[in-house]
Amino acid sequence: MNLIFLEKIIFGNRVLDYVFALLVLLLGLLFVKLVVRTVIKHLKKLAQRTTMIFDDLLVRAFEKIVLPALYLSCIYLSLKMLKMPPGMEKVANVLQLAVITFFATRILVMFLGYSLNAYLSRKQEDASLVRSLEGMLKVMKFVIWALAMVIFLDNIGFKVSTIIAGLGIGGIAVAIAAQALLKDFFSYFSIVFDRPFKLGDFIIIGEFMGTVEHIGVKTTRIRSLGGEQMIFSNTDLTDSRVRNYKLMEKRRVLFRIGVTYQTTLDQLKEIPRIIECIIKNNKDANFDRAHFFSYGDFSLIFEVVYFVLSPDYNKYMDVQQEINLAIMEQFEKRGIEFAYPTQTLYLHKT
After folding, report:
1. N or C: which end of the chain has fewer CB within 10 A?
2. What does the pLDDT look like over 55-108, one tens digit per residue?
3. Domain 189-244 in CATH 2.60.40.180
4. 251-334 adopts what CATH topology?
5. d(CA 102, CA 152)
């Protein structure tokens, strides 16, 4: 009687076929639960003992992607053991392809995020770079999901080539209209990866100067010394000569002073030694040279070069002030006069 019941046909399949399909489903789910979960458990223990990011990524991939995919695969395999109407079988195949596409894309996106984190760790960058890359990462994820959707539609029989051709013609028109926007977007890539400057850097672009506050997909915002915010398109920055003072290790300083033509020869010979001694006694400065440079219209000009051992502008001004005051003090002691614009008028009686 039981054997006759097992051979009974229901919706095109024997009851025995349904029993086998259910058995395969249960065994598959049991296998996944016991074996795969055991593997994940061991991976978690291994990840806790290491500082590597990759093993943490594997644990997340197994838990969030591989495990659900295996559960759904068990259901699919059990259904494939049964004879289904053509429409139902096609739906099952489409669902299986959708599941594979979805989880494969998730793995790709997850590894993209891992690669970005590994890049940042290798470069030892701060949180400012992470914020700068957020917009770009979202765009890349959107592109990956869009490509995955196109591949999925192509595999289930849609004529995506016709749709893409139509979008291509419209895309050319959009690209022409949005040419400036696209240039700024690609300039953003250049700023993020080439790193000519970053958040907090003090930069000069032409006659404008200030501290970088925000690096966006289209624009970069700079806070000027006057307090106002200046907004530059990314293309303007990549097409300009940018001077980044934050990357400077020390500042080279050149200045000139003029003394009167009444200065004696001995005093002229002494001036370079005076200046050299003053600069060398300053702990924040490194002397380079001091020379009698030229004969001016109303003064004898000396040129001085030294280095401030700090990129900070305020520190440079402090050092220059100390040097100027010390030069003034030494010149007064030695009776050396600074020159200023003068004219001598000679009258001749006829």
Report:
1. C
2. 666 667 666 777 777 777 777 777 776 666 666 667 777 777 777 788 788 878
3. no
4. Alpha-Beta Plaits (3.30.70)
5. 9
